[in-house]
Amino acid sequence: MSKSFNPDDVSPTIGHYIGGAYAPADGVIDVTRPSDGKVAAACPVADAGMVDRAVQTAKAALKTSNWGGIRPRERSKVLQRWADLIEAEAGTLAMLEAAYSTRPVGQLGQGDIAITAEQIRFFAEFADKEDGTVVPTDDASFGMILTEPYGVVGAITPWNFPINMAGWKIGPALAAGNAVVLKPSEMTPFSTLYMAELATRAGLPDGLLNIVLGDGETTGNAITAHPDIAKVSFTGSTAAGSAIMANIARTGVKPMTLELGGKSPQIVFADADLEGAASAIANGILSNAGQACVAGSRLIVERTIAERLGDAIASHMRAVMPGPTWDAASKYSPIISQRQIERIDRIVKAAIAGGGECMLGGGRLEQAGYFYAPTLLSSIGSSSPAIVEEIFGPVLTMQTFDTEEEAVALADHPQYGLAAGLYTKDLSRALRLSRSLQAGTVWINRYNRSRDHILPTGGYKKSGFGKDLGRDAYLANRKSKSVLIALQ
Fold first, then answer.
1. Which residues are catalytic, by number?
2. Is the pTM of this model over 0.85?
């Protein structure tokens, strides 16, 4: 069980983690606690030289350990031990995460941390279960398709779910036989550093997992442009993903997995279980205060039930329990920064000034830190920034429809296609619309991921390409080779 703690008692180790040990560095970027606005630590910035040191360490570790060539089961055993340590050290990880991020400590132990351990075990099991393929050829030859690791994988993770996102990137890359150089967000770096320490304790050969701290402009660019990084995996905004693609294009060619922004619709038909839908929809926008790429931020509801559903959702929104992330009773997250809460408020105020109706919320909560009230907006035109832009906050917009075709048209966003929710008791309609909706994930009569880690996640359009989670994520960390043998 997660317990409350004093954040001033948390003293993270600060530095880059390279070759199984810390490389001390002076912090130059303030790390601010979003729950109280206090600058509580500082993050160093790895320059191109430090990134190169991490990459060369990773290359050397691959060679000396033969990580990609040892029995796959041996890789699996190390990752299983790492998952065990993540669970055993959940208390320390939870404090490091909750003190500096938007994740409430009460949601970490049995939530983010336990799920991350499960996912690492899931990928570990692929290590000795994915094999090559013998393909049909003529009688005079023998054809095979083999897979092998890329080598050094560069990864960049966001601030909103630091532990989970690190597991998404590191788990499949290591299971597939690669080394990793990872940059966590400069706003939430410390739990990822401790995860790397635990990997070393689990027996991962030194140098196979290296963590470099810093910003996107300096450290991130150095990672994506490095000639010895064979593949890049990134989760974050669409704008940052575009910049990464441009940087890679300027310096060479390499495969990428990009899980980017979203503006996901939640469509509700009149035959749906309205109370169940209201609960799922509210959770889909209130979880992490809407700071999730898959946040269900656009409610599209059949006109005849709009008022009833809006009232039910508002009731769930009013029941939130905000508080500092280090308080086990807190169930509602702060916004990550002053800059972001100002952006959220600016978009909301513009929507209201443009004729929108604010049914609930619409401003900051009166308490320490960066807390924004759960907000429900209606009567907003489709061109409003509140409809078009990824707000990344607890803001739900409501639009109405009369026909199925109109619902699909409203759901189709010009830029994003990450996820969608659909609520109906009509199975034929559910299956029909799941094909029509332009989204990489469609949830029906629910709005959240399950612990079925076999399901991949990824987007359409500018929400990215490639997949995290599932078999797809493991295979994305291996390259294929065709072999044709002439039989003599």
1. 259, 293
2. yes
